[in-house]
Amino acid sequence: MKIAVISCIHGNYEALNAVLSDIDDQNADNIYCLGDLVGYGPYPNAVVEMIRALDIPTCQGCWDEDIVEGLNSCECSYPSVLAEKRGKVAHEWTNQVIHPEVREYLAQLPLSLRDDNLCFVHGSPHNQHEYLMPEVDAFVAMERVLATGADILFCGHTHVPYVRSLDAGQLQIRVKLTGKSEPQNTGFLHRSSAL
Questions:
Q1: How far apart are CA 154 and CA 126, in angstroms?
Q2: How far is CA 83 from the centre of its chain?
């Protein structure tokens, strides 16, 4: 089965159409969306209407939450003061033009999606605001995958497309009791996962 995963559309209807056209050309069987349908771009309502019309399974992104819950509910950090000012202006504008039924749709989006051994989230399984960048510590990456019970975790939010494999990752746990020189309990955890 061939799947397509999209994320962080941010109200850019033209980009969404171009990506959906490419997905169609690639003959994907299923499409999943990792959230952030709104924010910044000029067509938040049209983006949500298209996602809904195509019945694309979607999780809630931090910008989607921000429009539902109010400014800065997402607690996302901005890389500069200028970016923060632009973000606030974008939020205020989006908040004014968003249709009530679109706001309601964004409010009911789940924080994660599952399909067999696949898990889809916006930020991480722990928090939709967490950035799992490519250089995240391997232990943290493995823990995030294991937390889902899935073998493959798809995350958005970073705007950085990457694939990270934790092939035959081993986590060795040793518990040493006071006064004992040898570990009393040794466990191994193996997982072939991608992040």
A1: 13
A2: 21
* φ, ψ of residue 112 in degrees (nearest 5): -150, 160
CATH architecture label of 3-164: 4-Layer Sandwich (3.60)
Residue spans of the domains in the chain: they are 3-164
Q: In what order do the strands lie in the sheet with 165-175?
A: 112-115, 118-121, 152-155, 185-194, 165-175
CA distance 2 to 59: 20
The type of residue at 178 is T
Q: How far apart are CA 120 and CA 155, in angstroms?
A: 6
Task: Determine the pLDDT at residue 98.
Answer: 97
| Cα 16 versus chain centre, distance | 17
- The answer to pTM > 0.90 is no
Confidence of residue 148 (pLDDT cuts 50, 70, 90): confident
- Identify the DSSP state of 98: -
Average pLDDT value for residue range 80-96: 89
Of 95, 86, 41, nearest in space to 67 by CA: 95
Q: Which of 39-53, 89-103, 109-123, 147-161 is the least confident region?
A: 147-161
